[in-house]
């Protein structure tokens, strides 16, 4: 089964998106009975009902795909951010003032994140390109700087590219001075790695959202 690697911030963002899909699906499903009564007694005579069913199937597919990805997720942590996660878990275990159902929900969420954790011991200047690295590369004659991020976290306008993008796949594992080739826009181009450094912000993204969740009465 394919695994999907996230940073903590990316995982939380994706999880919230899945929760939103579930909320929208429930709203659509709640409209079924009412819509079926409009425009005719038979469902196949009711255009609004047919359109609603199309929307329900589409949303159900999106939710199922999101849940599959979450079930097969891995979350990259720096040692410091993972230690912080364990501190939150311990704090939650020692809490006596939370409503039982909310307490169980939070503890289950935190433990679920912890079980998916992968510790990334990236030094300030890593030897090889990996998720959480900022990489200066040369593509033919053009110098570019990219940060390698997790699944669904790409922001090209901010210089962030997902680890499963073709360019990332070409340079992950490469060392400074290595030359790789990648197909970009239908053209085979040479890539040289000039510099590799750690992007601390990427590996710490999501800790504030986790702290906020701990003080909230809502699910993650």
Summarize it:
With 220 residues, this protein is an alpha/beta fold. The chain is 47% helix and 22% strand.
Describe this structure in words.
It is a single chain. With 220 residues, this protein is of the alpha/beta class. It folds into 2 domains: 123 residues, no CATH class; 70 residues, Roll (Chitinase A, domain 3). Helix content is 47%, strand content 22%. The protein contains 8 helices and 8 strands; from the N terminus they run βαααβααββββαββαα. The protein has a 5-stranded mixed sheet. β4 and β5 form a beta hairpin. α4 packs antiparallel against α5. The longest helix has 25 residues. The protein starts with a strand and ends in a 6-residue tail after the last helix. The relative contact order is 0.16. The model has no long low-confidence stretch (mean pLDDT 88).
